[in-house]
Structure formats: C-alpha cells, structure tokens
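ugh finaly. both done.
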Amino acid sequence: MAAEYFRSRAARAGLSHVAVDSAGTLGIYDRGASPEAIEAMKEVGVDLGGHRSKGLEASGMRTADLVIVMSWDHREELAARYPDADVDRYLLRAFEKGPEPDADPLDLQDPIGRELEFYRTQRELIMACVDHLVLFIKHLP
C-alpha cells in the first residue's frame, strides 16, 4: 500500500525521477496484495492489482539512497543483514507528524488478516506519512 501510494504521490509532486521499490524481509515472492488492500487503495484511486511481493536482496540495499520500513524489527533486521549498506533507514511513521523525521516513531501495524476497516485506518495513516515523506525528499540536497 505504501509503495504504490508513494509512487503516485511522488509523481504528482514532481519527483518522477525517484525510483520506488517494495520488498519484504520474509522473502515471500510473487504474491498479490490482499483483497482488502486492493479495495482500500482502490477507494483512493491507487491500483494494487498488479502488485507482486518479493524479498529484499542485497543489490537493493546497495543501490538504495533511502529505505523506509514499517517496524523497528524490520530496521534492526536490515542493519544486521546488511551492516555495510550506506543507506538512511527510517520507519514510515517517523513522518507521521511532518516532514522532519521523528526520532522515536511507532511501528505501522500489519493489517494482514484484519477486516477492511482496519486496512482503511492503516491506509489513512500511510497516506499522511507518505505525504510528509514526499516533502522530506523534496528538500534533500
């Protein structure tokens, strides 16, 4: 949900040169988004129909300028797996309150297995964070 919304939001903000990728730490490959995620994002004009999951690979960490994770566990796992990766890592919710990253953000709850209304709640939180993340990126040197 976050990557596809970011992709559309970045394009609207004139950041079409920014490459966006989505990968998980569990190494799950080729699964589509859940029906609830597809529906929740469709309601705001974002199409998740073509989304396919993939696991994070070392090459992604080597080429990334910025990595956004959903939880502290993800951040710690990436630091352990790729200790030499010279990339800034932030939790998505670090941008919940504005474009200046919060030093102690909360995890984003995974909606998998939950009802559509929970996906909608998470969608609204994701959208607010991504909107601020776009502003953050626009002001990077």
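ok and the 2nd:
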Amino acid sequence: MNINLLETITQLRLYVGCLGEKNQFGWWASSFFTPSSNAFLEPLFSRTQLLAQCNGATQAAALVHDERIGVGHVYHLFRLPEDLEQGLHRELHDPKFGNMIPDNVSPTRVLESLGKLALTQKAEDEGPMRIGSISDLYLVDIWKQVAGLYTSAFQQEKEIYPYYSELS
C-alpha cells in the first residue's frame, strides 16, 4: 500500500478529528485533544497517547458521519476498509506524528496544517457529499481534495460529510 496515501489519511484524520471536537468547531462531542485530556491519558497511554486520542476522536466523528451519511456500502474519513484502518493504526505508532497536534491546541494552527495538506476545493453545500467511488479511496489526490473540502467547511463554519460509495 502507498505510504504517502496512509500518511495523508492519517494527517487528515488527526486534523479533522481535532478540529471537529466540541472545544474547536463542535461537530462532535468529544474532547480528546485538550490539555485536560492529555493530563488524563498520558499516565494511562504514555507510549500510545496520540493513538488513544485519535481513536477516541475517530469514534466520536464516525458516529456523527454515520448518522448524517448512513451506513452500508459507504466509507468516509472515520470509517474505512479494514486494510486502510490497519495501515492508519500502524502509521500512528510512528514518532513523526507525535507533535502534529500540540498540547495547547490552537484551531488556527491546526486549520493551517490542514490547509497545507489540501488541494484547493470549496465546500459549496453543507451535509453529506459524495466524493467518488470506493476505488477512489486509494488515490492520494482525492484525499487531498477532501482535505480542501474540510478546510473550506471549517473556514465557512459549515458542516460537511464527504463519503465514497458505488451508488450515486
């Protein structure tokens, strides 16, 4: 599997997972990327704290995405095929991701980082948005377009839910 693909999706999941939390843009009710969360998680998950934070935010985000999009023959940033999920899990063990989300999260800094990952896309509408077919899940440039859509949505304070499916 393409390492660049996994790295891109991992970064995207971390940034969007963090920005969507209730103390940032409030798309979902979790708070895994806060200083108080860090103080709680660090003793329990000293070597895998980022993985624990990402997993917690992913579960919260997946619930909201599934509620808006539906489930069954669709995938989105927070619910992917098993091979991609396993690859993301391995990626989060890499120390290079350790400092991506600082202890004192600044939405501006995280949004800037998300924007650097993105290909320019503008979120015109709110809600669910079909991005492509399931085979497109393995294309890096499509994920960079998704990063652009999320960046635009956060900047415009719109909620979007990009997804992939075989059905249009």
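summary for the 2nd one i guess: The chain has a mean pLDDT of 84.
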